[in-house]
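I hope you will forgive my troubling you with a question about protein structure. The record follows directly beneath this note:
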Amino acid sequence: MDIKAVFSGKGNLRFRLLTGILSVVILSYLITILYTTKRSMRLARENAGRLGHEIVNRYANNIATDIERISSILEGLSVFSVNSRQQKVPNIRFLLSRTMKNILETTDSIFGIWAVWESGELDGRDAEFANTPGHDAGGRFVPYWNRSGGIHVEPCMDYQNSDEKGNYYHIPLKTRKPYVTPAVEYKIAGQLQTVVSFAVPILIDGKAVGVVGVDFSMSGLKDMTDAIRPSEKGYAFLLTKETNVLAHPKKEFIGKSITELGYPEYVAENLRSGKETSLIRHVPALGKDSLVVAVPIRSRIAGHLWTFGITLPIEEIVADSIQTGNRIIAIFTLSFLILILIIMRLTTLVIMPVRRTASELNEGTNHISIAAREVAKASDSIASAASHQASSVEEITGILHKFGNEIRKIRDRLNSVNDIMDKDIPASFQQIEQIAEQMNQAIQSGAEAAGEAEKVIRTVDDIAFQTNLLSLNAAIEAARAGEAGAGFGVVADEIRRLANRATHAAHETGELVRRIQKEASSVQDHSTTMKEAMSRNRNFADIVTDAIRKLNQSAESQTAALQQIWDEMDRISNFVQQNAAIAQQSAASAQELSHQVDLIQNVVRRLSVSVIGRNGNNSPYAKPLP
């Protein structure tokens, strides 16, 4: 199928059909694709939100479980320390130190475990242990088992300070409540370490006599969050309850508030309030829009401890949806192309019968138009011939009237002669001779007029013959025009019948004229005889009287013949007028038919343009009419 041919003419019917149908199909296609894509993206975001909440809660629960286990260990260590003191267990310091070491060795998530007792509160033997491992210079029991350089024990440091470095001890001791410190840097085993301490007071009868706790190193927390991979490019992070960064893939972010990283204040407020929070924003660490979900980590004994969060790039969240959407688009596109081919084929099947019908209709109207023009031309010729016939008939009638007048004059003179002959023949010989001479001249004029009339009648006969031929030609053209020319066939037959009648009347008129000529010749002969007789012997009155009587009879016969000629000429005139009227009517009908055919051809031409298009000038029915 030629796609270029389909769209070569913007005015053709196929193009309009395809434009209408494909507009609806394309609009439906675009709406479906947009709806499907947007719905897929929305569902992907919703699913990503649910998945993000599920992932963050799962990991947060794991961390909270680990924290809860450590909290239980600290509570147990605190109770164990109190019970051992109250029971005055021998070597209590060694027992507590060994217990703390065992806890560190079996708990990989903590960096160190420690205890700080108030002076003289453990067993009253501080002086004995001055400057021994796990004791200060005064002998206070302050062991700190940690992993810096390997598991070992050393005295706690900075517990006597009142700044943030000493808060791990002073705050829980004063408040008698568990306390979680922010990240603080210490020099441990000669190395700088940033740790977060989780401290629990040791209470005896409501009095705080010391503090036990564990430390989480920042590197350990980072390793813990780095090990959590919510997606290929996603990451986990850990915040303090004050929304400062504890662990993050980007080291430069650690210690900063999330508001410093561009997060809105309401997000920080929600997190400080311990609310689960999620949002989509541009994340500098990834350089792209991402889903951020954060939940609080709570401890039974410490409450809101930290905030754990994950970051998922949107492109990964919607990757499956995009892939699915691309598949849908590919399927829809393939279906759309197939549908286009089907529609083009169907429109071709629809257009072909219309095109054939337009071609056949145009061809038929061309034949009818040609026939109508031929009929109109023949009708014009017939009308012209009828006009010439009418003119000839008028001319003949004038000649015959002139000849009739001469005959009447002759008859009147003959009557006068007859009267004279009856009254005074002798005296009238000379007058008779004069009258005979005049009569001879009149007869000569009548003979000449009869000759002219015969010529005109021959002209009428020729015109009638030509009219008959034209009517025959019109009948042939009407037959070629089919049903549309049936009316013209009837008209042509009527014209041919009238032409035949005119020919017959002309022949009869010619015969009468020839009879008149013959009678005129006889009268002329009798006149000559009379003149000769008058010259030979004027006494031959009987002869003259007889000749006059014969002349009178001849004049009467000529008068009767002229009357018949006038009647025939009237009939011929009527025939000619009818022929002229019918020819004019036929010409008008032919012109009207030609006009109607032109209108039909204009409709066919527009239909052809609609079917073929404005570029379809090479088609046989797109050509201009002749």
